Inverse folding.
């Protein structure tokens, strides 16, 4: 077994080597251990096949060692009465030189215990003496892999299942459908796999910014693929043996361009060039989706089915006669008025409620992204929160089960180290330390904390096209989430967790997993610490407003001494949106130094991240005045507009001596439009 060989690699053991950390772990006298080689196994209880495999692997690794223990491994099935252990995954280990007792109430509990033993067993087949009592902090400990934007083979998914199981993760969420490709065989609708599963460019970026066309299976240059139902059944069984449920996601009503290309009659326009949303007023759409879900439920036994529900544009619904009729019949809008945004929201709620009830009628439970919070969903529906604290608290207050996957901590497609040092990513900056600082308890008040079902890391793959790159983005950050999901947020210090993860990453890399090596991290931007300069605390007059969405600290942001880090979301970068209809600067501010002063240098850092259309300015100019009325140009710096693959930060400046009280700084937008982001105007 790949993962057992990977973990049976310790030459010496310490309590910090187990990841995730057990609830209680007391090691015995140093040097005393139970020897696996030659041990008898006494077991009259049902075990997962994976438990048997792990036990045999432990014996196989140590059988070449001289001597045998003569000891016994005893598996005892009994309830664990500790209030902390009210989980079917709970277990206890009692280890002495002569015996190793494993206690659990379920086969899954025995599996979790054995996974811990594998981590404790050294290369010589020795397990240190001691006692462990353990249970998970959260029921749901998940990983989502987007297999739509780029398709990943079954063997890659099995490898990730092995790694997940070793770290007690128990949900693999497969994002099977999206505009970039449909990935599951649906026998009733073959066009989903002969057309919707294939596109005319391999890299998502090229396709999305290019034709956005689909291709018939087998045509030259067609990129894509799909999983047959047989492959998925085998994958489900493989995961189940390892204590992992696979949760399928079928996106609706949005992110459905690929379906509407194959079956345009399901859109509002019935045109070959389709919008992203299903027609919410067309009964054929509901019949289609119910038929699809019938086959999904037949393949996936998971109690939960994810229905998406996020980012619906609803543009086509505004003018669609069938959608309008549905809104009128359900009192969402008046017959003599155009539907307003609230009516469109209610129409989406109607759509999701109807599909959720279909799942409930078949004994399944719906999950949706947090846009579905306001829908009157079935009582057992769960909400997966991807946005922020506000949505998590609202969902919990409404009595929903909440799975936390907030982008600020759990979106693993963001850069994990200094962007100039990394492969191209979608943007953002999410280092290991930030993931490890995630505290699920803060996402709900005490009265509703029990509604938090668990946590999940999400790997979106717009810019992740290969298995190696996927593993590079997943690990070690996913190991931090495994720790949080099982152990909670406070069983060990950040430094201890980092040490354990560095050790684990070394093992992963030695065994062919392309994990990022934390020891080589560049880290946060060097200038992201407070600065001191002549304009510190100066009053700033904005001749053009900053964006309310990226306000930083407001009117004080550009002279507060705070420089931004690698992420424009960090609260230090202030954003200015270019006005496509005007030739005026995007950034236009005047600084009042409070008194006339000698200056020799005026500059500002600007960020460029092309994916979200953040660009360097095309021109940077500085003017100075003694009286605030009459200005003299100090200097101007012009830069040709060029797109770059990797994000970067550049200093624009004018170096010239002058005396001034007032300094006007202007930055013109890039030729590409978009945004300007700056963090501090520095005067020397």
């Amino acid at each position: 077994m790949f993962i057992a060989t990977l973990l049976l690699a310790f030459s010496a053991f310490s309590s910090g080597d187990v990841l995730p950390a057990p609830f209680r772990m007391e090691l015995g006298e140093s040097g005393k251990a139970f020897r696996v080689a030659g041990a008898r196994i006494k077991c009259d209880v049902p075990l997962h096949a994976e438990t048997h495999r792990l036990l045999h692997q432990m014996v196989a690794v140590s059988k070449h060692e001289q001597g045998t223990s003569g000891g016994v491994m005893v598996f005892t099935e009994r309830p664990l009465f500790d209030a902390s252990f009210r989980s079917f995954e709970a277990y206890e280990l009692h280890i002495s030189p002569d015996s190793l007792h494993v206690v659990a109430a379920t086969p899954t509990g025995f599996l979790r215990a054995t996974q811990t033993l594998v981590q404790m067993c050294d290369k010589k087949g020795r397990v240190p003496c001691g006692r462990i009592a353990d249970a998970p902090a959260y029921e749901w400990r998940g990983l989502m892999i987007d297999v739509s934007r780029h398709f990943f083979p079954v063997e890659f998914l099995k490898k990730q299942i092995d790694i997940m199981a070793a770290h007690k993760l128990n949900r693999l969420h497969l994002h099977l459908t999206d505009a970039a490709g449909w990935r599951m065989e649906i026998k009733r609708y073959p066009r989903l796999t002969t057309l919707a599963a294939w596109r005319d460019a391999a890299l998502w970026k090229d396709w999305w910014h290019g034709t956005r066309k689909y291709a018939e299976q087998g045509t030259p240059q067609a990129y894509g693929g799909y999983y047959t139902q047989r492959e998925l059944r085998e994958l489900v069984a493989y995961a189940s043996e390892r204590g992992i449920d696979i949760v399928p996601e079928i996106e609706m009503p949005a992110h459905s361009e690929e379906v509407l290309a194959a079956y345009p009659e399901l859109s509002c326009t019935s045109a070959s060039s389709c919008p992203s949303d299903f027609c919410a007023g067309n009964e054929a759409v509901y019949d289609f989706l119910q038929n699809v879900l019938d086959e999904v439920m037949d393949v996936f036994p998971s109690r939960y089915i994810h229905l998406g529900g996020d980012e619906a544009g609803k543009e086509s619904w505004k003018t669609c006669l069938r959608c309008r009729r549905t809104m009128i019949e359900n009192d969402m809008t008046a017959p003599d008025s155009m539907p307003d945004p609230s009516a469109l929201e209610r129409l989406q709620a109607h759509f999701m409620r109807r599909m959720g009830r279909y799942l409930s009628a078949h004994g399944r439970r719906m999950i949706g992204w947090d846009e579905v919070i306001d829908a009157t969903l079935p009582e057992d529906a769960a909400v997966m929160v991807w946005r922020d604290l506000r949505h998590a608290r609202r969902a919990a207050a409404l009595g929903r089960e909440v799975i936390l996957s907030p982008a600020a901590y759990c979106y693993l497609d963001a850069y994990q180290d200094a962007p100039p040092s990394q492969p191209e990513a979608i943007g953002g900056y999410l280092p290991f330390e930030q993931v490890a600082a995630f505290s699920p308890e803060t996402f709900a008040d005490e009265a509703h904390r029990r509604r938090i079902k668990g946590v999940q890391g999400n790997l979106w793959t717009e810019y992740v096209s290969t298995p190696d790159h996927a593993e590079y983005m997943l690990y070690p950050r996913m190991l931090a989430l495994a720790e949080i999901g099982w152990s909670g947020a406070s069983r060990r210090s950040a430094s201890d967790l980092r040490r354990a993860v560095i050790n684990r990453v070394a093992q992963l890399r030695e065994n062919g997993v392309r994990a990022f090596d934390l020891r080589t991290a560049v880290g946060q931007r060097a200038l992201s610490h407070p600065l001191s300069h002549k304009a510190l605390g100066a009053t700033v007059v904005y001749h053009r407003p900053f964006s309310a969405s990226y306000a930083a600290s407001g009117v004080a942001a550009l002279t507060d001494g705070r420089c931004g880090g690698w992420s424009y979301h960090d609260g230090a970068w202030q954003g200015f949106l270019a006005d496509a209809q005007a030739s005026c600067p995007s950034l236009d501010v005047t600084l009042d130094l409070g008194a006339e002063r000698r200056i020799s240098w005026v500059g500002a850092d600007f960020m460029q991240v092309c994916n979200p259309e953040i660009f360097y300015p095309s021109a940077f100019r500085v003017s100075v005045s003694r009286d605030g009325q009459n200005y003299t140009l100090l200097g101007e710096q012009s830069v040709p507009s060029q797109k770059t693959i990797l994000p970067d930060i550049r200093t624009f400046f004018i170096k010239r001596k002058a005396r001034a009280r007032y300094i006007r700084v202007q930055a013109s937008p890039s030729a590409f439009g978009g945004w300007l982001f700056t963090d501090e105007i520095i005067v020397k």
